[in-house]
Design brief:
The protein is an alpha+beta fold. 22% of the residues lie in helices and 30% in strands.
Length: 160
């Protein structure tokens, strides 16, 4: 059999991602607490990957017209990751979003995103502490990131 998309609830997606996402498993990233929607990929009736799409983490992109793929996790099944990114792109566009973006670590190659037709921003997003005196946060992961856009997205510049 071949890979097949299937719906999944956020309630089921969040623990699946927690158990399979390489940065969450080792404690480098905090778990997702919610999202707008999730979808999964299955092979022979077994879930082998999940994507969660939510509101953008960066306030300047949270305009009601922009979505962010906040997590993609697979069990390593070939092509599952790119299938999830492509499905997120199609779903966001069908729902009327003007932009869909995601971030990956600067050290990651972005092969699945490229295969799904996504476009990389030239700008490297520098890792920052989330902790501020006015809003204390426990810091988990501070690494540089790449920003990627779904191919149909009307890109906008982040406020400096």
């Amino acid at each position: 059999m071949s890979l097949r998309l299937r719906p999944i609830t956020l309630k089921a997606a969040v623990p699946w991602v927690r158990d399979h996402h390489r940065h969450e498993r080792c404690g480098r990233q905090r778990p997702v607490v919610g999202g707008l929607w999730a979808h999964a990929v299955e092979l022979n009736g077994r879930i082998c990957g999940v994507a969660i799409v939510g509101r953008p983490v960066a306030r300047m992109f949270d305009d009601g017209w922009t979505g962010e793929v906040v997590r993609v996790a697979t069990d390593g099944t070939r092509n599952a990751c790119s299938m999830l990114y492509a499905a997120a792109s199609r779903a966001a566009r069908a729902l009327g979003y003007l932009r869909l973006l995601t971030y990956i670590l600067a050290s990651e190659p972005g092969t699945s995103l490229r295969a799904a037709g996504w476009v990389r921003d030239e700008e490297l997003i520098r890792g920052q502490q989330w902790h501020r005196p006015s809003r204390p946060r426990q810091q988990v992961l501070v690494e540089d990131r790449q920003r990627w856009w779904a191919p149909w997205s009307l890109r906008m510049e982040a406020a400096a």
